[in-house]
Amino acid sequence: MRVLGIDCGTEFTGYGVVEQNDRGDLQYLACGTVKLSRQHSMSHRLNQVFESLCKVIREFCPDDVAIEDVFYAVNAKSALKLGQVRGVAMLAAASCGLPVAEYAPLSIKSAVVGYGKAEKSQVQHMVTTLLRLSAPPESPDAADALAIAICHLHTAGTERRQHATR
Q1: Which residues participate in catalysis according to the annotation?
Q2: Residues 37-44: what's their mean pLDDT?
């Protein structure tokens, strides 16, 4: 199974592609960050996120897309902008016929670190370890996106095992 994880943000949107084989081994395929300039209009930035994610989807052909659920925003305006980016990420996946799973930050950190209130540095360290990377991803947003993909792979694996025992 191959998963595209997306960490939505209004300035930086991270993405990460992870694959899991039948033995449960995780393999890193790609990660990066879509950098959005505040000098551009919101519609331009949203289009940039959409086109960038569609390109990643076309290149890596994931089976599923996973994104972080909205959990906190400084104010209503920030929440609205983040919601727009999340909507565009979902649209990119849906336009390519891919299902989208959403995970709370607590679930993502628990799946990757084993502790729901882990620090970003702990998430980066575990992503680096689990994917056997020589160095942590340069962007914390890309590391978070990889963590989201890993969370989905772990969750999907658990669900498959549960259905197999029924």
Answers
A1: 7, 68, 141
A2: 92
